[in-house]
Amino acid sequence: MLRPATETSPRDDAGKSTGPHSAAGSDAVKALAELQKEYSLERIESWAREGRSVIWGGNSWEAPLILSCDTTPVGFAELWKEDSLHAESVAESYHQIPGEFCSMIKAMIGRLHLRKDNAIKRILFFGSICEPISMVLDHARHDGYDVHCIDAATAFKEGERRTELVAFLINELQKVALWLTGKPVDEDRLSEELKFKNKMVRKVRRILDLRLKTPFYLGSTATSQVLLGSTHYFGQRERYEQVLDQLLVDLEAASAKPEKRFFIPLVLAGGVAGGPKLLKIIEEANGVVLGWVIHSTSDFREDISPLEAVAHYLFDAQLKGELGEGAGASATLRRRRVEELVDKTNARGIISSFVTGCPYGSVVQGLERQYFKKKGVPLVGLEHSVHAQEPPTEEQVTRIKAFIEMLAE
Amino acid sequence: MANEARDTTWQAAKLNLREFAKLVDDEQQSLIDAKGTKKVGYICNYTPVELLNAAGVRHSRLVKTGSPKTVSAGELYTQSVFCDFTKSCIGFFQEDDPFYKSFDKVYNFHSCSTMKRASEVIEQFVPVKLLNLPKLRSSQDARNFFREEIINFKDDLGELTGTRVQDEEVRRQITIYNRARALLKQISELRKGPYPVISGAEFLDLVRGYYYLPGEKLVQALEQVQRHLEGIPVPPGRPLRLMISGSIMADGDRRLLNILENELGARVVIEDHCAGVRPFYHRVAEAGDPYRALANGYLDQAPCARMKPLEDGVTFSGKLAREYSVDGVVYVYLKFCACYGVSKKEFISEFQKQDLPILEISSDYSESDYGQLKTRIEAFVEVLNERGGTISHEQYVNA
């Protein structure tokens, strides 16, 4: 699969490949970029001002439920895409959040405070999320936000008390529907949402599989957008589906021609909350992220009631270590998914990244470092902030480049 | 003559406290040495100890403060971003500490996410069972769910020992532990008077008994301590009265108390943390379904800040400050403790509403900042003394 470098793969400013097989100039990639650009906080807030139901949170495993309640879930990540340094300083001074906590929670609460007069006034969070996020959202109540908690429920081990857990969570999900609409869950609507989500995820899985053959066609940054979009569809589901279809056509065609250029296949364990800059560095060093651990590409079950399907989806994800701390995922079991992706993608190494100050990230990285050392799979640890406006640090650049160079030898 | 009698009673009481501390230490050694019995460690106060006793296991809370070396051993897994208490828990296992090593199984009701992660690491050393603890403490659904988790816990203990836990024995243990909690609360309340007959450090030594002694032995020892303390004629005067509020002050974490009480002569009269009085402000119903009773009782305990709504914990803290007529509050949170670090503004605002001076300390288990810590505490105590901390207790309460 791997060939010696005969040519380097040139890239454009956005980190997308621009080589002969690149899709950078394709209509599909342009449409994806356009979708992403339109999905701005200003745009989302304008929907809320127009009277649409919009909430902060609810943008992970529970997204189909929220969408079935005619509500747009907005990921907390939108809070730190802009003005995050200012927001962090607000959190430290106004909310008195101690400096040692991660930039993510500080940017979140600072930005919620700065935008307290805006139209999105409801927040949903899951009780099994990390304590820093759970605690920081308490401050938002003082700014008039209506904060709803889905009570904590975690599957710690496979097979343990699944029936009771599912029953408890279903009840909690019903409360979410009541909170949003004043009515119980519309199960038919939820079924439709799950089917649509499964349909999108099947396409995403195919795109990821095709990237194994044509790794340069769709850059890592664009791929991460495809994955992120599979939850919120950028608020425009039909257009999102069209983009996926276009990408599939392009990728199927491109994959007919074997890739000859040199690259280092990698698995990314953890997120890149600070935006595309780290992915760009990886690509500049001839690394290609082919395995993405934090995003789930699993299906919701369609053979059981939709509420049960949502509950099982969450508990399965926790046991696979998918969806991260936001879903209360297991720290020790994530390695199974990492390992599965290493095998599937023939990855030469793992980049394990977390936001500085994140206890979950630090322990999961420590455990995986030990585990993969024994397995002989190289792993490099990477810390980053959520501040997209900050350039990558010298340390980050050096670590990534040195790691990939080492893998290339 | 009266002074001599008082001194004799005082000395007898202090001797009794030392005996209690020895009892607790001996129990730990006895747990290490015990053969032919299952030994269980637990991490969080939301673990119903009644069931551990009913199951006939030797048990102890994993509540020790680690040395900087132990903390550093824990950091092999957590890097620096966990609180030192969590790192100590892991570190003791990593260092093969004989006490921690002796446990057959560790249970953790999912308290904070950090302890959940620590439990996952501890599983590398000893079997661990994590159990769910709902956050919404007032919700009936949460109570029903917690009851099921408690039954799950009971069944698992039965599997561990090979003997089914009997409901009657659970009920008996509920009565015993209600008595133990009531005794500790009553002993703590002896400090509500102008001159607290027991220091903060001594009270925490009694609390250790709750985590290391089996129920009946604990009750017996506490009854004796209570009798001695109630017999002490209260000396005149009113020392500076302080409250400690915030993160866990684990077994052995006495730096702050040493400075406050031994070096500066102030008295800590109340401790609102999970190794202080917080677990002793609830009673478990003794009639009806024992598992329902445990679920309700434990969710009704003075809450950890992890529980929702946060206001419940904040209000409880403020109430204690009033009940114990404190002159000031030392708000201490362990570095990286999200429950008390991220929410500190809420707690501090509550004390400010009561016009109580507050000293905020971000703490860890290192030894290098002792001088700096002492300087800050000294300045705080001086300010309080100048503010009139030594007025008569009646004056203070009336004011």
Number of strands of chain A: 8
Roughly how much helix do the residues of chain A carry, as a percent range? Answer: 40-55%
* CATH overall fold name of chain B: Rossmann fold
Instruction: Please report the first level of CATH classification, the CATH class of the largest domain in chain A.
Output: Alpha Beta
CATH topology of the largest domain in chain A: Rossmann fold
Biggest sheet features of chain A? 4 strands, parallel
**Strand residue content of chain B:** 5-15%
Q: Judging from the principal axes of the Cα atoms, what is the shape of chain A?
A: globular
Q: Based on the structure given, which CATH architecture of the largest domain in chain A is correct?
A: 3-Layer(aba) Sandwich
Spans of chain B of at least 5 consecutive residues whose pLDDT stays below 50 are none
Number of helices of chain B: 17
Integer average pLDDT of chain B: 93
What is the class of chain B in the CATH system? Alpha Beta
Quaternary status: heterodimer
Give the key terms.
heterodimer; A: 409 residues; alpha/beta; Rossmann fold; 4-stranded parallel sheet; 15 helices; 8 strands; 11% strand; globular; disordered N terminus; B: 399 residues; 17 helices
